[in-house]
Write a structure and sequence with these properties.
2 copies of one chain form a homodimer.
Chain A (H helix, E strand, L loop, with lengths): L3 E5 L13 E6 L4 H10 L4 E5 L2 H5 L7 E3 L1 E2 L2 E2 L14 H4 L3 E5 L1 H9 L5 E5 L4 H9 L4 E6 L8 H14 L5 E2 L1 H13 L3 H5 L3 H8 L3 H7 L9 E4 L2 E4 L2
Parallel strand pairs in A: 1-9, 1-10, 2-8, 2-9, 3-7, 4-7
Antiparallel strand pairs in A: 5-6, 11-12
């Protein structure tokens, strides 16, 4: 039987899919899922994604590292923000980190019923594609988007995954075809391609251009973060 | 001030936009908005889009033409279905038609608060673009999609509109950029491009390939249908 390879362009559309019949890949390239991949690669014991700073604060008694950021600045009293540069081995090895991320957390929450929920980014692109090829399951690539709407960077990454899987016998939906065609358009210089987006201007205004370049590196890592209860841990 | 040119990829995303600050173009290429453009061009006095066959039936006492179709067949007792070939001058001139269309009606309903709601299709592409250029308003292109999800044919048409407007000083959102890039990919042979979609297989199974070819004709008409209360009439 042919398995489906579907792309969900924003979390708002998740209810249109039977997530319980899919392995779900959560995608939030700038910057949540990139930082999560990097942190798990660098030996973080677990990463707990939460929506609100108050919720993050609630984990303080547990002795976890707390990551909270607003408008590109680390919130006073927190250990660090959402930059992947905060997720180096020196900082996170053996630690549990609580990470505030609005778009990514909502996508995760709505995907909980899936057969498995894993985390993708350009950093672990080939690792996650190779793993997906071995699963013999329907696959749903969930773009976290921006404030519930479509964004190009998450869609381009979904298209990069489709690129690696499309000759493995999956049936693609229209969104998977579109994501892959957009990836074809942008793949020769993704950084340059994304510069024309309004989102890019917004991120530039936040002064996180170095983060953006970091998040667009392909195959820097091989760890696959997987959801285990409320925690993201390394897939064994 | 720069006006926005935004693309709403499915009706589910309409609430994310301030429709009251936009002129909205409703897009349902296969086949509702194509048939509506063709019918208004051919002298239909008005077209009333409704969701359900029962609702359509309710208009029988008014003496209107009733168009209802399920699975590619005209419903027994109705005048015709959704094929654009039913909307010729001989059949519709001077008449009011009540048309059942699930995707398109929902998109219209959710866009009612807009500054103006007009109907677009490849048939009236340049006419609607030329009119939009004169409006000095924010523009939202609403893809009716398929069962609330993304589809390629509506998105490609949105990209064709963006193509004609993008050098007129609008600010594009990510979805408008994506739609335009997809249009660039498919524009040389839209019919061939759409053949790779699963939706295309579904439509083929319905035996409406001639309708599809008809709906992909560019600039066959110049009339712009506009929403006036619950009726679509010709923009004067």
């Amino acid at each position: 039987m042919t398995n489906d390879l579907n792309v969900c362009l924003t979390p708002v559309l998740i209810p249109l899919y039977d997530v319980e019949k899919h392995v779900v890949v959560i995608i939030d390239i700038f910057r949540a899922t990139s930082s999560i991949c990097y942190g798990i690669e660098n030996g973080a014991e677990a990463i707990i994604p939460v929506s609100e700073i108050e919720e993050c604060e609630g984990y303080r008694p547990h002795g976890h590292l707390l990551a909270a950021e607003r408008n590109g600045e680390v919130v006073t009293g927190f250990d660090f923000g959402n930059s992947p540069f905060s997720y180096t081995a020196e900082k996170v090895a053996g630690k549990t980190i609580v990470l505030t991320t609005t778009n990514g957390t909502q996508a995760l929450h709505l995907s909980r019923a899936a057969r498995r929920v894993v985390i993708g980014s350009f950093l672990n692109l080939t690792a996650i594609c190779n793993w997906l090829k071995t699963q013999n399951e329907n696959i749903l690539l969930v773009c976290a988007g921006w404030k519930n709407n479509f964004n190009l960077e998450d869609t381009l990454f979904a298209g990069a995954v489709v690129e690696q899987l499309k000759h493995s016998g999956f049936k693609l939906d229209d969104a998977a075809i579109a994501a892959n065609d957009l990836y074809q358009t942008g793949k020769d210089d993704i950084s340059q391609y994304l510069k024309k987006t309004s989102h890019s201007e917004r991120l530039k205004a936040l002064g996180i251009e170095k983060d953006i370049e970091f998040c667009l590196q392909v195959d820097l890592t091989t760890a696959i973060p997987v959801l285990d209860g409320e925690r993201l841990i390394k897939l064994q």
